[in-house]
Design brief:
elongated, disordered C terminus, 10 strands, about 575 residues, about 60% helix, alpha/beta, binds adenosine-5'-triphosphate, Rossmann fold
């Protein structure tokens, strides 16, 4: 919950701090693990130097007890360390899940829906990476000076071989980074773009199949995927080459330390016991660097995923308030709203102002492309005005904390999207269903009987393979969802587009019921038949208010196409600007 109410910069800082804390703790555990890893080489030396020379079985037994105890401790600490990584991974995913989703939803509104699925994939990738053994390697590498020091203590020549070996692996590591990082990042970005595009297109599978568009689309996707595969292949090839070179170099180094040890033993400069121990120590010294070179691809991909998630969270969440606002009832004030889509030169809504009181129903009409749906999205706080603002009982609807705003608002978008779940869950907006409220919303929307005729009634799954809802049925269930919980503001974008006469009568009854409960209803419609239910009409043309006034004054001017046949007039009701607001 904390993450949901935290500003994004603070959340990221907090997360990085707690991650650093976790790493420090894991680093301490790594220190213990690495010290305990000296058990085997030390045991070997002691056996060579004490047991073999003295032939004492008691000494051997004592050494064995100490060594086995140390190794048991090693296993325990290693287990605790892996649990620490797992806990770090799950804290990370839990705290970022909601903010990343919120940010992805906002980004999807502007750039398409690929963002939300990508954010989830990225979070999962990061979680796996933190929980994997890859994250432990730098912590182990940090203790390599200890192993190097022990090698120097055995004999300076052992130390020298260790230092040279380490240097060679470091050079190979840098080479691996130079040869693969950029190309793997590019491949990853191309892969993400390609998956997003395929995902977005597959939502229109029906259109693709009906009009045989698949071969043409497959050609486009292949083009993108080829670029990604080529980059990935090249990066992976280079990575594998360096990894193979590293492995054979590492084995050569093992030979070198053995040969060095043999020479030193021949010269009586070290005991035979140090030979095995030095070899094991060199292996421990080089292992983390070897692993890091082998795992480098995972590091690059995890870094890219983290950058995407961090940028997404930091760029979006701050736009909304995090404190819930209590349910309220008051005027809806649209104050000099100007809106231009991001990256577009076109201003879609041009200084629109009007006020609605509780219990008023407004009809918005206008030609195609006039900006009606855009205005609807501004009313429900989906879009942020560039200038001006939309206020419900004095609260800015865009800034409003989304969950509490959802309690106040019902929205039926032009293309009705029911979510994966039962009809009851959909009407209850995927929250814990309140059966009484569901039935009431269904009754007001006039869909109770219609749902009763479905295979499992309210428990029918809307995406069930055996049962498919018609466009009109979806629209009517969408209306029930919009009316669930007696919202104070109801915005319906072409709610009668797919309705038959019965559906339209149900819609009229629903709008009247919402009005009687004191809700403000905004209705966008092409078909003028629904306009009989409204109190006021707003005619929008090229993003401006062309007419605004009582239905009786405006209705006669509307043609069946929703056009008004007169010049822009003095607007019947234009409230004075409420406040100076710039976004
Ligand atoms: N995200 C966006 N990016 C670019 N242009 C946009 C965006 N959203 C809307 N527009 C443009 O704004 C204009 C108004 O679109 P809108 O969907 O609001 O019109 P409308 O009046 O609802 O049309 P219709 O009656 O056909 O549904 C159109 O020219 C559209 O291309």
């Amino acid at each position: 919950m904390k993450a949901a109410t935290q500003a994004p910069d603070a959340l990221i800082r907090d997360l990085q701090r707690s991650f650093a804390g976790g790493l420090a703790y894991a680093g301490f555990l790594s220190f213990c693990v690495n010290i305990l890893l000296l058990t085997v080489p030390l045991f070997m030396i002691q056996v060579q130097e004490r047991v073999v020379v003295s032939r004492s079985l008691d000494t051997l037994t004592m050494l064995l007890v100490i060594a086995v105890g140390a190794l048991a401790l090693y296993g325990t600490i290693e287990f605790i360390r892996s649990l620490t990584f797992q806990a770090m991974a799950s804290i990370f995913a839990r705290r970022l899940n909601l903010p990343a989703l919120q940010a992805a939803v906002s980004a999807s509104l502007e750039q398409g829906s690929g963002q939300s699925t990508q954010a989830i994939r990225d979070l999962n990738d990061i979680r796996y990476f933190i929980a994997s053994s890859a994250i432990a390697t730098p912590l182990e590498a940090a203790w390599s000076p200890i192993f190097l020091a022990v090698l120097f203590i055995f004999h300076p020549i052992y130390g020298l071989v260790g230092a040279v070996s380490l240097l060679i692996l470091l050079i190979l590591g840098v080479l691996s980074d130079l040869l693969t990082r950029r190309i793997l990042k590019e491949a990853n970005e191309a892969g993400v773009a390609s998956i997003n595009e395929v995902g977005a297109s597959l939502r229109h599978a029906e259109t693709i199949e009906a009009m045989g568009m698949l071969p043409a689309l497959a050609k486009r996707w292949r083009g993108q995927q080829l670029a990604m595969i080529e980059h990935l292949d090249l990066g992976t090839r280079r990575g594998k080459f360096i990894a193979a070179l590293t492995r054979s170099s590492r084995m050569t180094m093992q030979l070198a330390i053995y040969a060095t040890g043999a020479v030193l033993i021949i010269r009586n400069e070290v005991s035979a016991g140090t030979l095995m121990a030095a070899s094991i120590l060199l292996g421990r010294l080089l292992a983390p660097f070897d692993s890091m070179i082998g795992d480098w691809r995972q590091w690059v991909l995890a870094a890219s995923a983290w950058k995407r998630v961090r940028d997404l969270v930091q760029s979006r969440v701050s736009q909304r308030q995090t404190v819930p606002t209590p349910r309220t009832q008051g005027d809806l004030v649209i104050d000099r709203v100007v809106f231009a889509p991001q990256g577009s030169e076109q201003t879609v809504i041009k200084s629109v102002s009007f006020t609605l009181e509780p219990g008023e129903v407004l009809g918005i009409v206008g030609p195609s492309g006039a900006g009606k749906s855009t205005l609807a999205r501004l009313l429900v706080g989906v879009l942020k005005p560039n200038v001006g603002g939309v206020y419900l009982d004095g609260h800015n609807v865009f800034l409003w904390e989304r969950s509490s705003f959802g309690d106040m608002v019902g929205y039926l978008p032009q293309s009705v999207s029911l979510l994966n779940g039962t009809i009851a869950e959909n009407i209850a907006r995927m929250r814990n269903p309140d059966p009484h409220a569901i039935l009431e919303a269904a009754r007001i929307a006039g869909v109770h009987e219609l749902i009763g005729r479905m295979p499992l009634g309210y428990d029918t799954n809307v995406n069930d393979g055996d049962f498919k809802l018609s466009g009109g049925q979806r629209q009517r269930i969408g209306l029930a969802r919009a009316l669930y919980g007696s919202p104070r503001l109801v915005v319906l974008d072409e709610p009668n587009a797919n309705l038959d006469a019965e559906g339209e009568q149900g819609l009229i009854r629903a709008v009247n019921a919402a009005r009687e409960s004191g809700a403000i209803v905004v209705l966008i419609a092409h078909r003028p038949s629904i306009m009989q239910v409204v109190d006021k009409i707003l005619v929008l043309r090229e993003g401006r208010i062309n007419q605004f006034g009582p239905r009786s004054a405006i209705a006669g001017m509307i043609t069946p196409g929703g056009l008004v046949e007169m010049e822009p007039a003095k607007q019947a009701e234009q409230p004075k600007p409420v406040r100076e607001v710039t976004a």
